[in-house]
């Protein structure tokens, strides 16, 4: 496998991923050396920008195994991805949160059966500007006090009177993002986010925003922090820093979360390329997740999902 760590961070978000390079005659990275049946066709997906780095690495590797299969994966956010999934436009949908009841109901109305697959763990990371040498640790309650709209001008000194009496500048994933949904559920508890927050589905916009303002604070997936850790500071939450170990163990609570791919059952049954790509993804998701800065699942979980995928055939 190639070393994919941080390869895609500066170029991928905000555009569709379309990869189809020349390959070889042997299977690469799928756990065996058997000759692979060559396929052709197309596979389409969309969804979470948080999951997208894993998908991009998988698509690139898969193109070496099946060069005649064109895999596209847009990054319109978890909610936007589900909209396309519901409309029947995609074979799979990446998500950084579980599917909502209303989304599942719309899929049922549309007659679309699907299967949920977990592919990695993420630790939603709270970051501040590199010159911020005061906000090194925050509690969950501090986060709520900062981020919930209450009609006041938020200042760092509101959290600690020894901190600067300067207005906080907020950056957040957009409302179509599963990362926003997760933060909303865990931190905001469905209250309104600060009105002055800059919202963007493009995590690179958030990265640049935090880098550019001493008083900025933002949040996004762990991989995006790792890709930019030399130019921003991570904030520990209740004394715990997000790392591979604390995310996997659950010690980084409540901001640890699983990442998902939802696949259309009919596509798996009727399109061999969809089945083959999803199988390849599950067989290699752990390694690719680690390579781009996330945390792999236990092997038994990948096996469970592979069994579920096989059961759709």
TrEMBL record:
Q: Where is the composition biased (Acidic residues)?
A: 25-36
**What residue stretch is flagged as signal peptide?**
1-20
Write out the ranges of the annotated region (Disordered): 24-49
For this protein, the parts annotated as crossing the membrane are none
Q: Where is the composition biased (Low complexity)?
A: 40-49
What subunit structure does UniProt give? The complex is composed of two ATP-binding proteins (PstB), two transmembrane proteins (PstC and PstA) and a solute-binding protein (PstS).
Give the family this protein belongs to, as stated in its UniProt record. Answer: Belongs to the PstS family.
- Provide the function of this protein: Part of the ABC transporter complex PstSACB involved in phosphate import.
Q: What is this protein called?
A: Phosphate-binding protein
- Organism this protein belongs to: Paenisporosarcina macmurdoensis
């Amino acid at each position: 496998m190639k070393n994919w760590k941080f390869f895609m961070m500066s170029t991928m978000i905000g555009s569709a991923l379309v990869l189809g390079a020349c390959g070889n005659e042997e299977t690469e990275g799928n756990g065996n050396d058997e000759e692979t049946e060559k396929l052709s066709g197309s596979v389409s997906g969309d969804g979470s920008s948080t999951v997208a780095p894993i998908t991009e690495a998988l698509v690139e590797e898969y193109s070496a195994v099946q060069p005649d299969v064109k895999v596209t994966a847009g990054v319109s956010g978890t909610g936007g991805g589900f909209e396309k999934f519901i409309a029947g436009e995609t074979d799979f949908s990446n998500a950084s949160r579980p599917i909502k009841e209303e989304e599942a109901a719309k899929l049922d109305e549309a007659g679309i059966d699907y299967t949920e697959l977990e592919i990695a763990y993420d630790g939603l990371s709270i970051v501040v500007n590199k010159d911020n040498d005061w906000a090194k640790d925050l509690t969950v309650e501090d986060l709520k006090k900062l981020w919930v709209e209450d009609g006041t001008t938020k200042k760092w000194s509101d959290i600690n009177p020894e901190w600067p009496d300067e207005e906080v500048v907020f950056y957040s994933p957009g409302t179509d993002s599963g990362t926003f949904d997760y933060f909303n559920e865990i931190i905001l508890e469905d209250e309104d986010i600060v009105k002055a927050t800059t919202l963007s589905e493009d995590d690179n916009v958030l990265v640049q925003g935090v880098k550019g303002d001493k008083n900025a604070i933002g949040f996004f997936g762990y991989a995006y922090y790792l890709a930019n850790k030399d130019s921003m500071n991570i904030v520990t939450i209740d004394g715990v820093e997000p790392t591979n170990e604390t995310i996997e163990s659950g010690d980084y609570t409540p901001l640890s979360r699983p990442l998902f791919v939802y696949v259309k059952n009919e596509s798996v049954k009727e399109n061999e390329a969809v089945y083959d790509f999803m199988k390849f993804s599950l067989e290699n998701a752990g390694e690719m997740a680690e390579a781009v800065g996330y945390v792999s699942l236990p092997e038994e979980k990948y096996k469970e999902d592979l069994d579920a995928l096989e059961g759709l055939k």
